[in-house]
Amino acid sequence: MQSITAFLEWLQASSLAVFIHKTTWAFTTVEVVHVFAISMVIGTIAIVDLRLLGFASTKRPVAELSKQVLPFTWAAFVLAVLAGVLLFISRATDYFVNPVFWIKMSLIVLAGINMMIFEFITVRGVQQWNLDPTPPSPARLAGGVSITCWVLVLLCGRLIAFTLPTE
Ligand code: HEM
Q1: Predicted model pTM
Q2: 34 CA to middle of ligand 1, Å?
Q3: Ligand 1 centroid to 104 CA: how many Å?
């Protein structure tokens, strides 16, 4: 634990972290990039989730829709992680002990596991229900879990700022 704390203190004292932390426009710019990226992640994943739930794009084949949309989700996710890491290092010791931050990270991992299960197991038989307006229950479950996780990630992300100690 001591070595983690020492590492976080070192990270937070780096010139990049101090610059982001002390320069209002720098933190704001990184946060804007983060918010842009997460809106792309959630906006694009919602297209797929709503199709899996049978609520939208019901005339489009699931496999084709996912293939077209998910590369944008992944690209936006990489950008969200990069910007998130920059925000994190600016107050690494405070974020590290913040339970809401860890709930948010756990929800991201959960959304990832849900996606893996869908990609490696559920989607195998997609050709049988590719054109069905309402996909089978495992696919609907994957869509429901996904959209719920992402909305909760949003909520926690917003909540972090209100749960940090005032400086
Ligand atoms: C795609 C997944 C993610 C979503 C949906 C998300 C969501 C959010 C939201 C809504 C905010 C608040 C923005 C604002 O109030 O202006 C936020 C801030 C933040 N996020 Fe994320 N985030 C994601 C990924 C990450 C990752 C991977 C990290 C860290 C490695 C991270 C670290 C942070 C930090 C440190 C803040 C600043 C909190 C503060 O206001 O002090 N985020 N995020």
Answers
A1: 0.93
A2: 7
A3: 8
